[in-house]
Amino acid sequence: MKVLVGIGGADDSLVALEESVRRAVDTGDSLTVGVVANPESNRDPSALVDAATAALADAGLPTDVRELSGDPGSALVEVAESEDFDQIVLGGGKRSPMGKIKLGHIAEFVLLNSRTSVKLVRDDAG
Amino acid sequence: MPGERVYPEDAAGSFPTPPLRITDSDGREITVDAFTGDADAEIDALVAMYDDFDPEDRAQGVPPVGESRIREWVASLLEQDGFDVVAWHGEEIAGHATLVPDDDATYELAIFVHQTYQGAGIGTELINALLGHAQASGAALVWLSVERWNRPAVALYEKVGFETASAESFEMEMAIRLNDDTG
């Protein structure tokens, strides 16, 4: 399966990356990482590119990591559709102090606008 | 920056402080009182309510499912420096409302009423007592998130004075100001 993982630096996106790397090692999924600028995160996109490249290399996977410019949600949808990806993988949201799940804005956009199937990875420890 | 929360400019009126003794619209004698969870039997009663909670009434992943996860979640709510009230019907807990502090000296509100006790006016009294309890202790800003299709909940929050604070997401946020002195 051809999988596009979108990461913007929020903690849940890093969980999604970890999980996708684990799964790609097990299943042979072809994994591409799209790094986007998430206004809800303080992490720097170029540092994310380096971290994702290292994570893929450490797992022995090809290092297809791209920094996507423009609106993050629409950039991910565009890449997934134009290059025939089977699935977009995103972080599954963060929890409020109460424990309520709140999806990120990028995930909300992609869920509503993508023709490609979307997987949200939930951090079970949350 | 998405998701900025706006609080009402004016403080709400004064809310009643617990305990509140009411007869619900089904004729049940209900006492709404502050809850500390100091006694194990009280914690067990609260866990029992959540363990029997209708999965259909869960919201944004809470309450969790399964007794051990419920127990952990209840403990995490109570160990924080917030406010809790419950509605007692005899030895049984009919509902629970909680304020959990977040990073900004504000509080997140949630309320849960067991399905056996819904639609009887208990939710309104729980919220009134919780806000009265917090207001008397000087808390100023309270917010909550609610799935926008949950009209009965939104109507209840509006009735007690919450206003829409942010509505750009799947769930909307509402907020109320309890005291003028901060925020």
From TrEMBL, chain A:
Domain UspA span(s) in chain numbering: 2-122
Pfam families according to UniProt: Usp
The protein, known as: Nucleotide-binding universal stress UspA family protein
Organism expressing this protein natively: Halobacterium salinarum
TrEMBL record, chain B:
Gene Ontology CC terms, in alphabetical order: ribosome
UniProt EC number: 2.3.1.-
Top enzyme category: transferase
Keyword Acyltransferase: yes
Pfam families: Acetyltransf_1 (PF00583)
Coiled-coil boundaries: none
N-acetyltransferase domain boundaries: 30-179
GO molecular function: acyltransferase activity, transferring groups other than amino-acyl groups
Keywords: Acyltransferase, Ribonucleoprotein, Ribosomal protein, Transferase
Signal peptide as annotated in the record: none
SUPFAM superfamilies: Acyl-CoA N-acyltransferases (Nat)
Keyword Repeat part of the UniProt annotation: no
InterPro entries according to UniProt: Acyl_CoA_acyltransferase (IPR016181), Bact_Acetyltransf (IPR050832), GNAT_dom (IPR000182)
Domain of life, per lineage: Archaea
PROSITE patterns, per the entry: GNAT
Name of the protein described by the UniProt record: GNAT family acetyltransferase
Organism: Halobacterium salinarum (strain ATCC 33171 / DSM 3754 / JCM 8978 / NBRC 102687 / NCIMB 764 / 91-R6)
